[in-house]
Fold each of these.
Amino acid sequence: MIEFYASHKLLVWIASISLPIAGCLLYYITFGPHTVSDKGIGPGTLVRRFGIREWISHWLMLLGFLTLAATGFMQIVLGTTLGHLGPFHGMLGVIFFLIALITLLGWVRDALFKQYDWPWLLKLGGYLSHDPKPLAAGRFNAGQKVYYWSILLVLIGLLVSSIIMEQGSHSPAGRKELFWCIHGLLGCVATIMVIGHGFLSLFVNPDTARVLRDGRVSKAYTDKHHSLWRVPR
Ligand code: HEM
């Protein structure tokens, strides 16, 4: 796989972006959105899903990730012709990693698996059903917990691989070395995961998209999809 990536980086990147988008479109055409309620939203019908610090760091992670993915992809397309991109990407990467780590550690208790997560996992959250019955979940459902731990591992892998690859050559041949390829492949995995996360949050569960605006979502949504979560006052 490493060898294939080393000689077909652009192809692997284009596939990692276009195939998940095509998969999301296919899912949407087949199952459509799982809207709970978009009527009658007022001050009394909303609950705070993200505190102000969580809301800011979620935005920072989102913008940081998009910039890293774009500057990483540009290095693949342009090679070394834009010499300043690499150092910019590397410095932003370290800042992004620290912000992501602090944010994720703040959510660690909500991300621990509980007994009630098993039915959710076995039924894949009801995502493959046309009439999904609500499944018990805490602040994060089992799918979000899987996403949490996997993205944490991938981010650690991105940081570690970048530190190792920085010791080697930056020439086009050097960029085909093992840790450059591991870093690039982990970048692809992260991109696929973020596309999936964004698709589920914005399109499949449009009730949650509101969280980006002011950190709040409808109470009807949390009652249905996070029934075991005690909303903080
Ligand atoms: C943990 C945060 C990250 C750090 C510290 C980091 C660091 C780096 C560094 C130091 C380089 C080499 C730049 C150079 O010196 O020329 C690099 C290259 C690259 N990064 Fe990252 N990065 C991070 C996250 C990401 C993410 C999130 C993606 C994509 C979604 C990504 C994709 C890439 C790609 C595609 C390359 C070019 C590899 C090649 O030329 O084969 N990185 N990164």
Amino acid sequence: MNILVSGAGIAGLSTALDLGVRGHQVTVVERAEHLRVNGSPIDVRGDAIGVTAEMGLLDGIRAKRVDMSERTRFVDRDGTVIARVPNEEANDSADDIELPREDLTNILAAALPPNATIRFRESIDALTEDGDGVDVRFTSGGSARFDLVVGADGLHSRVRKLVFGPESDYLRHLGLYVGLTELPAEDFRADDIGKMYNYPGHMAGITGYHDKALGILLFRSEFLDYDYHDLDVQKRIVTDAFAGHDEWEIPRLLTAADADPEFYFDSVSQIHMPTWHRGRVVLVGDAGHCAALLSGRGTSLALTGGLFLAEELERAGGDHTVAFDHYEKRQRPYVEFAQSTVDDGGNLLVPATEEEITARNTRLVSRPGKNAAGQGVSWSR
Ligand SMILES: Cc1cc2nc3c(=O)[nH]c(=O)nc-3n(C[C@H](O)[C@H](O)[C@H](O)COP(=O)(O)OP(=O)(O)OC[C@H]3O[C@@H](n4cnc5c(N)ncnc54)[C@H](O)[C@@H]3O)c2cc1C
């Protein structure tokens, strides 16, 4: 079949790979001008580990393993460590594979067969379906017809908006926003990695891997209405959110964010939809069921979804109606579990009040025998 995938994130790339190796002609359109490889390390967990084995990628993924979660600790305004988190709050099991988002993205892209290609700086402008196919007009001006369209274009999916309606019908804001920036290489200090500082409703942290340091700026906020494509607006929102605070490394993180052309900013939100397919269009990954970074499972869901979709299409002999139904039945239990796990993460990482920060630290410090190991929690995956 001739299949269009919108978005070259983990969901789009894994779907393109799983479809491509089964002989489909796959075109991936990605709005950015290159693969978006920034982001903190992510986790491959549970059945997603088996999925990467089926894709032939498990050894390559294991080779890129990092242990950032296990080095994370909370500090006070002077940078003194005041609490560490036991490992069981960081990982589901010892089998979890934590690796840089950049490595997983590159591994998937490198594994694409020749019949799966990526077109950068391209996006779907409009699509019209008839019984036999989908006519797509691209923002670059061209158009083409496809048998199926897969929306893998993330939390603010264009495909979802075009086919299923406005984002507001499906988005559940969890009350947090996150900014992420790469710190300048000349500033790198290994000892910074894994430190998190809180004041009420805010968390500033430094994570990283190898010789790369990433600044994290998390804060509590009501839902904000802003232009997702306007980077300057996003930087201003973060600067305003941390205004008046120059303790710990906050000024350094804000300066780095301001100078970063790849600055990542988004709401911590979930997408809840009664169905992920309509006619010849189907959603995979965050586009259909974002679980929010606090779940630690968005990447695993993207991996299972891509494989289930491709397998079901093969099993149904190309009957997309049957395949989409089966894909959804297999994927939904994973999504429901992931989406149900988020509550505690927000309270752990961004306590709302001074009392809650103190209570969190006391709880962590008083867990006998656990905090001494120097283990920590991953702020996101
Ligand atoms: C730059 C970046 C950094 C991230 N960092 C983290 C992190 O540190 N921690 C964490 O937990 N999660 C992070 N995430 C989210 C995480 O990658 C996802 O939750 C998970 O991997 C599922 O991925 P996805 O492919 O469904 O969505 P996404 O990772 O959001 O990928 C969607 C892709 O679609 C592209 N796209 C969007 N709109 C269009 C359009 N109209 N046309 C074409 N392409 C489009 C985007 O540029 C992106 O490449 C990040 C996402 C991005 C894009």
